[in-house]
Amino acid sequence: MPDKNIEVCILAAGLGTRMHSSRPKVMQRLAGRPLLAHLLDTLDVLEPAKIHLVIGEGSDLIQAAFAESKNVNWVMQTERLGTGHAVAQAAEYFSATSKVIILLGDAPLISVETLTALVQLDCDLGVLTVDVDDPGDYGRIIRDAQGNLTAIVEERDASVEQKVIREINTGSMVAKVSLLKQWLTSLDNKNDQKEYLLTDIVAIAAGAGCRVAAYKTPEVMEVTGINTFEQLASLEREHQGRNARNLMRQGVHIVDPSRFDLRGEVVAGKDIVIDINVILEGKVELADGVTIGANCIIKDSKIGENTVIKPNSVIDDAIVEADCSVGPFARLRPGTHLKKAVAIGNFVEVKKSTLGEGSKASHLAYLGDATIGTSVNIGAGTITCNYDGVSKHETHIEDNVFVGSNASLVAPVTIGEGSTIAAGSTITRDVECHVLAVGRGRQKIISHWQRPSAKRSEK
Ligand code: UD1
Ligand code: CA
Description:
Blueprint: E1 3-12, E2 29-30, E3 33-34, H1 35-46, E4 48-55, H2 59-65, E5 72-76, H3 83-91, E6 99-104, H4 112-119, E7 125-131, E8 140-143, E9 149-153, H5 160-163, E10 167-176, H6 177-185, H7 201-207, E11 212-216, H8 220-223, H9 229-249, E12 252-254, E13 260-268, E14 272-274, E15 278-286, E16 291-292, E17 297-299, E18 302-303, E19 308-309, E20 314-316, E21 318-320, E22 325-326, E23 331-332, E24 336-338, E25 343-351, E26 354-355, E27 360-368, E28 370-372, E29 377-378, E30 383-385, E31 395-397, E32 402-403, E33 408-410, E34 413-415, E35 420-421, E36 426-427, E37 436-437
Parallel strand pairs: 1-4, 1-6, 4-5, 7-11, 12-14, 13-15, 14-16, 15-17, 15-18, 16-19, 17-20, 18-21, 19-22, 20-23, 21-24, 22-25, 23-25, 24-26, 25-27, 26-28, 27-29, 28-31, 29-32, 30-33, 31-34, 32-35, 33-36, 35-37
Antiparallel strand pairs: 2-3, 6-10, 7-10, 8-9
Helix pairs in contact: 3-6
The protein binds uridine-diphosphate-N-acetylglucosamine and calcium ion.
Uridine-diphosphate-N-acetylglucosamine (UD1) binds next to β1, α3 and β10.
């Protein structure tokens, strides 16, 4: 249910200075997707009344990537004067009676549960905090003797005593809009960064007698902010570890969870084995009994029961039915459909083609724009010549055809049922059913042939 009283403001105007990148930081990728995509997915579940997205340099990239996002109010921060300044740019759009959740665009993994706990704090200003072993460059949480939150001090402004504090500011806050607007007007930039720091509103609110509260989450990974590629890489591994553990709990045998990557969603059955260095991208479905060998990349594809994908195969936008064998070193490109018990061997590339039940292409072939029937044998080195330099043409190979090795099938062409194509043929015309087509020069024998020999050097 959408919550009419909750709005969200995401700060995403930073360029990621500490990554030395020319791209906006929220466009850096975690699990194959921009950091911002993870946050927006979470907010899809929370359903706030509005999402105010503060963007700056590189905003065109962000807006293009998220053009479809509903409910977003894009706010430009032309000068990057700090997190407090960023929120102030959006504040005029907040509805006075709302509560606004402020999120940092560089902390992608926050969960709906944690956001809900934060929003439910009974206070004027709520801060999401966490205890960490190494507080690094995070803002420190300052509490008084009674344990009440009194301030957040940024690492650069912290005293030696404050630096040892292990409770840190995650950056997520929730505030009543009417009060927040007042606090924002009191911010100044008298600090080491010379920025308007959002974190200063804690001391301002506490000093004004407002109710400031903290929700300390145990979920460190969820609230980890990304400033450097080292932090991004370690969050990626933690996130992938969680993906792998979830799959293992469902009964998928992942041989080494530290060498598994899910960059999207997977629906998995039982008795599945995934060997090392496998990447699953987009939407992948693995039926019962599927085995995936080492170093495979499978994207937006369905793999049927008991099919074996052998090492080093790349599969993109394909349907592979039950009992197939694919690879090693196979490439299935978009539009490939392998029906039951098809075998695709090493160095075979298939594009926009269907292979019928029991058909085989075991070695070194290119099958593009082809419709291939059942029990067809495609010999080694066979190529469908589907492109004339301008247009693509189709090849039809009917049931029980035997294509000998090293045949070139020049499309458009149809090979009739039960026919045989002689090895080394170039087939340019349709072939009827149950015939042998030979399209090659006859073998000649030249007797008494003398190989050229090197002349003896004359003295
Ligand atoms: C911020 C917090 C720090 C907290 C840490 C958690 C402040 C002042 N500090 O520090 O207390 O421990 O996050 O990860 O808030 N941004 C803008 N406009 C600006 C400045 C920043 O949109 O003018 C955005 C950035 O794109 C980024 C986010 O705000 O997504 C946080 O800014 P960043 O510079 O990364 O703050 P930290 O130093 O990490
Ligand atoms: Ca940060």
